[in-house]
Write a structure and sequence with these properties.
- It is a single chain.
- By secondary structure, this protein is an alpha+beta fold.
- It has a domain of 62 residues.
- Helix content is 48%, strand content 24%.
- It contains eight helices and seven strands.
- A seven-stranded mixed β-sheet has the order 1-2-3-4-5-7-6, with helices on both faces.
- Helix 2 packs across helix 4, helix 3 runs antiparallel to helix 4 and helix 6 crosses helix 7.
- The longest helix has 30 residues.
- The radius of gyration is 21 Å and the shape is elongated.
- The mean pLDDT is 94.
């Protein structure tokens, strides 16, 4: 069992928080690759390429090498696109964490410390869709500290903050590759209420589904 404590973010945590987020998101690349390999159009392209090369060359070696090359190029391309997404996030709310999350009473950012270092993060700010909803963002737990209940404790910290500040619910978004995160949120009490495919070219090609979750905060009355 790991001993940890949760506290508010301070400026000295800046680089560690950004690195935790970037490292955690980078871990999804293999899962994203498997997700892409299940898409019908990808299967069709690989199958047609293999069949055409096998028919024209009369050899297994060439189509196998070609498919291997296509998979390797695809892996690099997906990794590059995903890194662009991570950089985009780092240039938004994580660029100035102090101003974004600690600039008003209705938002906050927390870190979890264990073994004298920051091992997990979570932020919360008012939802852009509904002012009475608190948006949970940037949940990340270092890989070697997962499974100890830190993520659930951070979720409960956000829920308690929402209750104290009069929010009606806590909401969050998850991507289709975040299977473990969705299971954790559901275990805390969040329920999926909507999902949609990201309305961009990349979103449609990758069947990039975003699931929206909500936790209704009980009234204190």
């Amino acid at each position: 069992m790991v001993s940890y404590h949760i506290r508010e973010y301070c400026p000295g945590d800046y680089e560690t928080v950004r690195d935790l987020f970037a490292t955690g998101m980078s871990e999804y690349v293999p899962t994203l690759c498997l997700h892409m390999l299940k898409q019908p159009w990808v299967i069709l392209i690989l199958g047609c390429t293999f069949s055409l090369l096998l028919t024209s060359s009369k050899s297994l070696l060439l189509p196998i090498l070609a498919i291997t090359l296509l998979l390797a190029v695809g892996r690099q391309l997906l990794g590059y696109i995903w890194s662009m997404y991570i950089d985009h996030c780092l240039q938004k709310d994580l660029l100035d964490i102090q101003a974004t999350y600690l600039g008003s009473k209705g938002s906050c950012f927390w870190v979890a410390e264990a073994d004298e270092c920051v091992v997990a993060t979570v932020g919360a700010r008012p939802s852009e869709e509904q002012p009475d909803e608190l948006m949970l963002k940037r949940m990340s737990v270092r890989k070697d500290y997962r499974g100890f209940g830190i993520a659930k404790a951070l979720c409960k910290t956000v829920i308690a903050f929402a209750r104290e500040h009069g929010y009606s619910s806590v909401v969050l978004n998850t991507l289709m590759v975040q299977h473990e995160a969705r299971a954790m949120y559901e275990g805390v009490g969040f329920r999926k209420y909507h999902h949609y495919i990201l309305p961009t070219v990349y979103g449609r090609l990758a069947n990039c589904t975003i699931s929206k979750y909500r936790y209704d905060v009980p009234s204190t009355e």
